[in-house]
Fold this sequence. Notes:
Blueprint: H1 2-6, E1 11-12, E2 18-19, H2 23-41, H3 44-63, H4 72-83, E3 90-91, E4 99-104, E5 120-124, H5 137-149, H6 153-178, H7 184-192, H8 195-201, H9 207-226, H10 233-249, H11 254-257, H12 273-294, H13 301-308, H14 315-324, H15 326-334, H16 339-344, H17 346-349
Antiparallel strand pairs: 1-2, 3-4, 4-5
Amino acid sequence: MLHRFTHALPLVSxxxxxxxxxxxLLIISKxxxxxxxxWQKLSVETRWFIVLALLFGTxxxxxxxxxxxxxxxxxxxxxxxxxxxxxxxxxxxxxxGVYGGWLPQNLLxxxxxxxxxxxxxxxxxxxxxxxxxxxxxxxxxxISLIRLFxxxxxxxxxxxxxxxxxxxxxxxxxxxxxxxxxxxxxxxFVVALLPRTLFQASVITAxxxxxxxAILFSALLLKSLFLAQKLSRRETSLxxxxxxxxPILKTSYAWLSLLIFxxxxxxxxxxxxxxxxxAAIFVGFTLFTAWAIATSDVANYIGIIGSRYGxxxxxxxxxxxxxxxxxxxLKIALNKQIVVYAIFDANRTI
Length: 350
């Protein structure tokens, strides 16, 4: 009925007076029309992915209790801190070297009240302090709305989770649509729907943004390099944005951006593709370097935390253990033990 009504605009009554519908009906009609056109442009595989990801991802969002995701509470706290204007984590002056922030007292509680702006508590999250604000893009968008509308703490937590899921689905949908008509799209389809991948996309973590950009970048690299197909203007823009963003998301992923130089220049839909490649890498590694310098002091938290448990932790010794005892690391991994425990024990092995 709404479709028939809004497509008959403007309406004219029998006495000649214009019967203009309320503005909200016009807005609904616009969004409905745009959504229908957008859905029709997507490939069948992309539509199936969106349906399945929403179905199983929403199940993860709703069923999993708050803070049960990997370090979910501290990731949420770090994102909330950034929206409060603290780009870098605050340093505890009492316990020097421990980073965290002053946050609403009921932020991580099951509470029907909005996160308090008056009553605050200190929450330490030194392991999340090195993450840049870019890593929390979906969290920042949702928390901004939470602050604006005063949503209660419980609903806010689930809302941020759902925004993470939507962010992931959007990125993978763009990747699948870029590979439409090729067998390579099924590789992205399967990887994105793996239970572990979808689980991480459904909880509050910086890895959601990292995984989304990494998969999207890999899909566009696959199309332009291995399938030797030319990227569209939109795909070229996405490719360059991913190359410039990945280095600041996670240090170990920085090298991935350099693969952009392997793509033939003819497969970029811009006038100066070589300049675009270098500009993306320059921006990415400049941001990476600037952020590394800004958070260089945060790395010292490892030794401080280790000393509390009687562990003598030295990063240089950890690296020596990795290089000199690779078979031991592999053995421990195959036994389904956490590799990090072996690294922490490096001082007794070397």
